[in-house]
């Protein structure tokens, strides 16, 4: 009797063991790598409700932020679109001779780099680029299974007057306006088309077993500030004010300012001098309208992600390629090393991990590549110059507490509350300097760099800047 009882118990244990092993095997097979929805927004300032502002309407971005980790101190590595995107997507810093301007190509400036999308493609992901991801549409073309961009003139005017005056020019020309308010549907402009293409791709990808890296590059609020009239109607221009920092102090080096040529090219903008208050407020109004327009398009994509039951399996990361001056320091556009040009919106939603947390940890855009790779469960390539922000996602204090950004001859070290900028040539010797303490001067109006009592601080920051701007800073690519 005992022998039969022992045999029965043994068979039961064996059955249970086999059952558990089978269940474990099935769970492992069903566990897929996380998808990545990679959303880029051109010229988006971190001037949104979830950053403490209350004058722009962006309900969909606000909702995404409530489900994400919000980076309160994220900085681009160079404030110009082509170079910023190439740097972010390769995980490499700009140097004096690499990633310079808007026309930068990653595949020419860093031909040996395995880009972020190419890394995921090599690891079994379907990779799709829609809209403006790289500045040049065919840059890094081998990284993508598919590249799509809306057909038509890049200025994307809908009003006949602007279309005629712009002609076939893809760059701004003398006649066409810097903004337009048109009675059209959302899909009339490129961003509406990009959203619809993203939605169609999500439907297609939902039926595939492969994980995906789906990149959507929205065009607004880049100039010209063109948006359907209903988004202009969200705002009362009489309530729009010029920024508090609408001043250029004499203590600030002249090299810090520019003539904002990107805006001057448009027909209704004077070629020199300060803009009138009325024109300034009209431009700000147009910028706000474009932010609300692109917010609505992103909302459609995120709604589809949820409808397809993909959101629990998809990391969503949203970023702007750099800041943008809206009259700050009497400047417009980017192309400077003031915080208004360097500080960027960055939010990341990780299913089961994020729920509206915020971090003040200093993060720079070269950190995005290694972070996404680690989140997906892979080892990052060895040559990346950023550091993963996974410790921040895990609620830890990161080791790195600094960022470095540059534009032309200016290089900025951001450390704690201090913003230190040097203008140098290839000899590395500073010919102008700028230091702001954001604890006492968040608007960057009091340059401390030449004050005697700050010379020890300046000397220390100068050493740190050189140690942190990257080992290849002066290298000329062969």
UniProtKB/TrEMBL annotation:
Pfam families reported in the protein's UniProt record: Sulfatase
MF annotations from Gene Ontology: iduronate-2-sulfatase activity; metal ion binding
UniProt entry keywords in alphabetical sequence: Calcium, Hydrolase, Metal-binding, Signal
Cofactor: Ca(2+)
Cellular compartments per GO CC: cytoplasm
Residue span(s) of domain Sulfatase N-terminal: 35-377
Family annotation (SUPFAM superfamilies): Alkaline phosphatase-like
Family membership: Belongs to the sulfatase family.
Name of the protein in question: Iduronate sulfatase
Lineage, uppermost ranks: Bacteria, Pseudomonadati, Bacteroidota, Flavobacteriia, Flavobacteriales
């Amino acid at each position: 009797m005992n022998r039969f009882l022992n045999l029965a118990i043994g068979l039961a244990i064996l059955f249970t063991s086999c059952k558990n092993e089978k269940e474990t095997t099935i769970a492992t097979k069903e566990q897929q790598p996380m998808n990545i929805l990679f959303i880029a927004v051109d010229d988006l300032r971190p001037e949104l409700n979830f950053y403490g502002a209350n004058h722009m309407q962006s309900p969909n971005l606000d909702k995404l932020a409530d489900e994400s980790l919000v980076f309160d101190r994220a900085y681009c590595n160079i404030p110009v679109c082509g170079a910023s995107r190439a740097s972010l997507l390769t995980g490499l810093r700009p140097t004096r001779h690499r990633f310079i301007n808007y026309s930068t190509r990653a595949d020419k400036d860093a031909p040996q780099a395995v880009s972020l999308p190419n890394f995921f493609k090599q690891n079994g992901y379907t990779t799709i680029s829609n809209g403006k991801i790289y500045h040049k549409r065919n840059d890094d073309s081998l990284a993508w299974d598919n590249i799509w961009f809306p057909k038509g003139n890049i200025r994307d005017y809908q009003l006949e007057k602007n279309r005629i005056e712009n002609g076939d020019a893809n760059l701004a020309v003398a006649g066409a306006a810097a903004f337009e308010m048109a009675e059209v549907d959302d899909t009339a402009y490129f961003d509406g088309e990009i959203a619809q293409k993203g939605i169609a791709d999500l439907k297609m990808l939902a039926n595939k077993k492969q994980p995906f890296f789906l990149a959507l590059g929205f065009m607004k609020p880049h100039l010209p500030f063109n948006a359907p009239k209903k988004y202009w109607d969200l705002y009362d221009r009489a309530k729009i004010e010029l920024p508090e920092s609408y001043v250029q102090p004499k203590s600030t080096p002249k090299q810090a300012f520019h003539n904002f040529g990107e805006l001057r090219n448009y027909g209704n903008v004077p070629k020199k001098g300060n803009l009138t208050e009325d024109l300034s407020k009209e431009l700000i109004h147009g910028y706000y309208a474009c932010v609300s327009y692109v917010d609505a398009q992103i909302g459609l994509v995120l709604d589809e992600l949820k409808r397809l039951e993909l959101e629990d399996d998809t990391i969503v990361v949203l970023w702007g390629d750099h800041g943008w001056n809206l009259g700050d320091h009497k400047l417009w556009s980017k192309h400077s090393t003031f915080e208004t040009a360097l500080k960027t919106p960055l939010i990341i939603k990780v299913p089961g991990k994020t729920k509206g947390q915020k971090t003040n940890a200093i993060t720079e855009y070269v950190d995005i590549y290694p972070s996404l790779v680690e989140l997906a469960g892979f080892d990052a390539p060895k040559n990346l110059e950023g550091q993963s922000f996974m410790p921040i996602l895990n609620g830890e204090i990161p080791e790195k507490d600094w960022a470095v950004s540059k534009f032309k001859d200016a290089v900025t070290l951001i450390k704690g509350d201090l913003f230190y900028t040097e203008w140098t040539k290839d000899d590395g010797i500073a010919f102008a300097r700028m230091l702001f303490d954001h604890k006492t001067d968040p608007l960057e109006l009091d340059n401390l760099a030449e004050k005697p009592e700050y010379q020890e601080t300046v000397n220390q920051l100068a050493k740190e800047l050189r140690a942190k701007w990257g080992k290849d800073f002066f290298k000329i690519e062969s």
